[in-house]
Structure formats: C-alpha cells, structure tokens
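Entry type: protein chain
Record version: 2
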Amino acid sequence: MPRAASMATALLDKFGADISSLSMIPSGGGVFEVTRDGSLIYSKKKTGDFPEINEIISLLK
C-alpha cells in the first residue's frame, strides 16, 4: 500500500488538476488498477508487476 500511495502522490504532483479523471482502484493483496475516464490504463492484477511511475505517466500521455 505505501508504494501505491507514493505513486498516487507522484501522479498528483505531475498532473495536478488534470488528475480528476484518473482513479487508482485498490484491491486485496496489493493489487490495483489505474483508470482514466473509465478506461483501464494499467492493471497490476493482470500483469502481476508493480509499475514504475514513469511507465504510468507514459501511458497517461
């Protein structure tokens, strides 16, 4: 959970007000998904890997 919280903070710092359309949806066992405007951007559940922040930023651009 601390890594996900750190990622959420970094995304807020990077995107500021544009973050309103972004969601990080937590699940059990450290699994989470990142969505933007309802579209799935990244799923740790599907990949099994915790992404680097730059990976998520690239997917959001």
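Comment: Residues 2-15 form the longest helix (14 residues).
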